[in-house]
Cytochrome C
Amino acid sequence: MVNRGKTSFFKERRRIITVLSIIVLIGIQFYRPGKNVQKKSLYNDFLRNEKAPENIAELIKNSCYSCHSDYTDYYWYDHIAPASWYVDNHIKEAKSHLNFSKWRRMDYRDKRANLSRIVTELNEDKMPLASYTIMHPEAKLTENEKKKIIDWLYTIEVR
Ligand code: HEC
């Protein structure tokens, strides 16, 4: 008798917790960060201004542009809070360091510094972020692909 009472108390509590969690999960969906998808313009774009060959452009777009440009390629789960908040933070932070969509507007010194930072990040395997490639394995770069990108970066003459 006593035992049965206990079980139903725990069952009841579990049900309340489940219902509350669902309410919270639905509730937080109403706070939506703005989408990082601006009106498409390639005027200031890095790959276009530096005339990246097609294969290199494809690699960099796939691996870096969702965080470091004005055009994020969202997946359906990126829209679901709290993942959407995490994604939004990453994009804001990434763009504050480097935004490929604003390349043409950077001055000569910023461009040079950024090129050398990109090489360093690639060489040290820091980018794309590991937390990103877990969810987007196709963004991971092979040694050979990294080498191709770096070789091309060295050919850029900054103006
Ligand atoms: C998931 C988002 C994401 C992706 C994808 C990503 N980055 Fe980043 N990147 C960040 C964040 C966040 C920072 C700032 C914090 C840090 O340095 O870890 C950053 C910083 C940088 C910096 C500045 C480092 C410094 O010393 O200031 C460079 C350069 C960079 N990333 C290059 C790249 C390149 C090149 C790629 C593609 C191969 C790439 N990133 C892909 C999120 C990303």
